[in-house]
């Protein structure tokens, strides 16, 4: 049974595309290693490029069958953009990607460094050309990957002018305990090129909520990533939720219940997990469990200590 008829839709920001409120992120599907709890069990022994391509295409096909119409990639997600380039969806899909990190693991899970951050104009120009070569006019949203105040990108007029010239919608993703400050700085840029923000919000780390509400009120699209706290809020994590649905569905339902959220990303690496994630749309907000948030600094320290598997 498909979910197409009951997956709610939304407009991604003022004047943006109409898409399903649950999207699919490819961070765990585009490369052999990731920091989600249990990722190694999900992908199994076949982590070859072709094995991961087949897996990604199966999950993408199911996503479309379930009514998902937004897919999130990045230059640093291994071969995620390449997997999208040779995938033919059975229904229209909006694709977003990101620049600012370069994948350096060479398809090795045990690599010392998996990605390197650089928000320079040279990196933007190189990665934008790489994305264009793979996705072309299929790209609908292009975002700065993990913008922070200390990266300097929000004061770099050369980069901001390049983003202003973009023919597609421009956004930024944020991370770390200073997400709210980064969002507010981006909102305050005169003639800001940004019309969308992607941030971490979950029941353990909700500190960006007020700033995301401000972005939403300004007409920006709001996309939430890491709703499951990199697997900590799943049944195999250290903060599994209890209620009338699976732990992951409850965690995603908690995000969907926030009035400032347009889209929440599923980071599923298996078809079974994707089906479970989409079950969030059937959860009554009144049935959501109460969770005590963690201190933001402690939360992000915990996240940075997760192993790539």
UniProtKB/TrEMBL annotation:
Listed transmembrane segments: none
Occurrences of domain NADP-dependent oxidoreductase (ranges): 54-240
CDD domains per record: AKR_unchar
Domain of life: Bacteria
Protein name: L-fuco-beta-pyranose dehydrogenase
Organism: Euzebya pacifica
